[in-house]
Amino acid sequence: MALLVRLLTLALTLVLGPVATLAGPAKSPYQLVLQHSRLRGRQHGPNVCAVQKVIGTNKKYFTNCKQWYQRKICGKPTVISYECCPGYEKVPGEKGCPAALPLSNLYETLGVVGSTTTQLYTDRTEKLRPEMEGPGSFTIFAPSNEAWASLPAEVLDSLVSNVNIELLNALRYHMVDRRVLTDELKHGMALTSMYQNSNIQIHHYPNGIVTVNCARLLKADHHATNGVVHLIDKVISTITNNIQQIIEIEDTFETLRAAVAASGLNTLLEGEGQFTLLAPTNEAFEKIPAETLNRILGDPEALKDLLNNHILKSAMCAEAIVAGLSMETLEGTTLEVGCSGDMLTINGKAVISNKDILATNGVIHFIDELLIPDSAKTLLELAAESDVSTAVDLLRQAGLSTHLSGKEHLTFLAPLNSVFKDGTPHIDAQMKTLLLNHIVKEKLASKYLYHGQTLDTLGGKKLRVFVYRNSLCIENSCIAAHDKRGRYGTLFTMDRMLTPPMGTVMDVLKGDNRFSMLVAAIQSAGLTETLNREGVYTVFAPTNEAFQAIPPEELNKLLGNAKELANILKYHIGDEILVSGGIGALVRLKSLQGDKLEVSSKNNVVNVNKEPVAETDIMATNGVVYAINSVLQPPANRPQERGDELADSALEIFKQASAFSRSAQRSVRLAPVYQRLLERMKH
């Protein structure tokens, strides 16, 4: 029996192929979108497709799921209509489109799909109609009637004035001498046309749109007895030049031509591949300040980055863009390519003046604005585009802005403009030094920073890096936005002005009159050496006001007991550096005393053990100081908490006693329970 089963399985495999193939090959993006349109239209009957029409135009699209809910194409509202899916027709008196279109030859099928103008021009040639009606297997990408009507009059005149050469050749270029269905139309492929074996460029995009020399397939896969017809929205023409050759012959690319030659990218642009060149016109270059343009043109690396930022890694026809999408450039940046009505946009701006200029190795769109990547900009240019203009103005006033425009490898730690909402500081020698301490002596990337790393500044200070769960900080200031890496330097946008450490924790406390009583207490407790030596401490420093709030008798008793005083002071010292930007909602910080401090932050107010902090982030070489207006009590010293603990213990014991009371031997078992309770209460 088992042998019979194996033989039957083998026979089925030989006849049908592997089981995995029984469901058929994976559907192409076009077929998936068509399938979705069928699902949306099935309530109207068999073989009905939902179609989105852009209001005010004749543009129609089969709908994918996202477009169905958004009801927009290129930002323009659409209406839904229901039509027969390709290959089907209505029957009077019946719902939907139950009948398959009758198969006829290519010539007659042209009329069925809405390409009667193509039929008309086919008639005018002497040779083509017999070929379309005769035996064979062909594919024709047939322009719609609207496509022919939109041709410039001079182009159409040149075709119809010489029907047996120009018109015949144009029509043959739309044909392939074999049957090609959409599932065979792969992205980036080339089909050999029936005109001098010239290539037709095919692109099949993930959103289901298929283009032929950047003309969109409107309705595809209309079968004929001798081939297949695909309706397209443009009359296509032969492609003869590569991208580099087009740059060479276009007058509006004079500056681009010189830039490409200087960068050595001409080899790439005349080679094989499928690229999109967002080609800046002479006007685009003229919009850039002469100083900036000359700097980039004279810097081979910056120039190459600039040009690579205008080259997308794949060919992108305008008709394929129906919503915004991110596309990567050869430079490695991401551009947001979108559309607004009939206009293409780059990063939200309608800068494309001429689109879909086809080349053998891709497509060109003319743009009237230069797309300068961060990697080709100076620190000064990066800062000018960011929300740090106030910090740049301070550097200018201090005579330090040349550091941002030169060739030094630096990182500018630039505070946000909001940091200065209460006014900008006066520029003096001290402020000038502080500003220099916002410039690090190397070009950094935040992703490579690590906890405990030290950074040397132009002001001569060493800054420490602190890495927390949700923030990355340098001293008291944390990075507020993604870093921008320029030609020579990097811009870090910071959430506050840096305050570099000026001494040890003990130095900080001695230098501030608010902490004179604390300093005396530290000295009495023998902790001076601890807070002077190297380490990583977070000190919640009670002010004189905090000590004065303690009743005099209790204060004198505390100050007279060195051991108890040291215990309480150690509870104010965390065993790591925690700046306010690293706190988040709540952090439990272990103290030198052993118990944990609860540090929280809400609405820019820091609390420790629910007590508000008067001042945060006073930086020291071996830690950070927070000023507080109360003396914190360790848990063992809090009478209320000890009482709560006893109450909880008593409640738990009574619960156990209640449970034991359900037992038949309750009198025996309750005795030790109550005994334990009494012992706990005594203590």
Automatic annotation (TrEMBL):
The keyword Phosphoprotein applies. SUPFAM superfamilies: FAS1 domain. Residues 1-23 form the signal peptide. Keywords: Cell adhesion, Disulfide bond, Extracellular matrix, Gamma-carboxyglutamic acid, Phosphoprotein, Repeat, Secreted, Signal. One of its GO terms (cellular component) is extracellular matrix. Transmembrane segments: none annotated. GO terms for molecular function: cell adhesion molecule binding; collagen binding; extracellular matrix binding; identical protein binding. Gene3D superfamilies: FAS1 domain. InterPro entries: Adhesion/Biosynth-related, EMI_domain, FAS1_dom_sf, FAS1_domain, TGFBI/POSTN. Residues 45-99 form the EMI domain. It is found in: Secreted, Extracellular space, Extracellular matrix. SMART domains: FAS1. Binds to type I, II, and IV collagens. Plays a role in cell adhesion. May play a role in cell-collagen interactions. This is Transforming growth factor-beta-induced protein ig-h3. It comes from Nannospalax galili. The gene is Tgfbi.
